[in-house]
Amino acid sequence: MENVTKDGLSLCPKFAKTFEILGRKWNGMIIEVLLNNGVSRFKDLAAAVQNCSDRVLVERLKELEEEGIVERRTYEDSALINYALTERGTAMRSMMDAIHEWADQTYAQAI
């Protein structure tokens, strides 16, 4: 399944899939928060990913879980639920660092 642009250029399906995941609103922010803060409770994620409704945050966490990027951790005899990055999720650190570097260079003035 190759993605072909209107100019006839083909995009790598893996590349397209990656940007499909990262391009979804809030996914990059969720990944960034988990990279920086580590294992987090839902309420802490909701506070860190400002302006994202609880409903959408739940949807995005489920999507990231299905992609193997986020792990939902539950504990016996406890209502506690935590979210953490999987190995696949933590492997995104260098990519996220590169995005930070690009943003710092591109948007030299504070936004």
UniProtKB/TrEMBL annotation:
<dbReference type="InterPro" id="IPR036388">
    <property type="entry name" value="WH-like_DNA-bd_sf"/>
</dbReference>
<keyword id="KW-0238">DNA-binding</keyword>
<dbReference type="InterPro" id="IPR036390">
    <property type="entry name" value="WH_DNA-bd_sf"/>
</dbReference>
<dbReference type="InterPro" id="IPR002577">
    <property type="entry name" value="HTH_HxlR"/>
</dbReference>
<keyword id="KW-0804">Transcription</keyword>
<keyword id="KW-0805">Transcription regulation</keyword>
<dbReference type="GO" id="GO:0003677">
    <property type="term" value="F:DNA binding"/>
</dbReference>
<protein>
    <submittedName>
        <fullName>Transcriptional regulator</fullName>
    </submittedName>
</protein>
<dbReference type="Pfam" id="PF01638">
    <property type="entry name" value="HxlR"/>
</dbReference>
<feature type="domain" description="HTH hxlR-type">
    <location>
        <begin position="12"/>
        <end position="111"/>
    </location>
</feature>
